[in-house]
Fold:
Amino acid sequence: MSKRAKKSEPAALAGMTAAQKQRWWQQENARHDKKAEEVKRRLHTALTFPKFCPLRQCRRAKFCRGDIKACGQRFYPGIPEAMKAWISKYTGSRRDGLPHEEAVRLAEQHMTRYQEYAARLQAEPAAASVDIAEPAEPANAAGNLPPRIRAM
Structure:
C-alpha cells in the first residue's frame, strides 16, 4: 500500500488483516445504505407518498414501509419540477455537511432561481419555427414504380 492510501484509512482499520478490513468496509457500507434508506423513507413520508400508496401497510402507518425504489419510481414523476430542484439542492447541501437552516436557505434560493428560469423559458416564443414539409413519396411506393425492363 502507498503512504497516501494508509493516511486515508480510518483509524479503526489499524492493525487489521485484509479479511478483517474487507469485513469492516462491508459493515460500514451496510450502515451507510441503511441510513440512506431511512432518509429516503422520511422524505417520502414528508412528501405524503404513503397517503396515496397502494400498499395498505403504508397508508395505515402513514409512513413509507414498502420498497423505497418502487415508491420513488411510482410517485417521484408527479412532483413539480421546482420541488425536485429544492429537494436536490437541500439533500446536496446536507450531504456536504451544512446545517439544516443553511441548507433550507440555499434550497429556497435555488428553487426561486429555477422558477424564474422556467418562467423566462415559457415567456419566450419559440426561436424560429421550422416548417416540416411532408416527405415526398419514395420512388418505389405503390403506383410510382418505374417501368420494368426485361433483358433476354
Summary: DSSP finds seven helices and no strands in the chain.
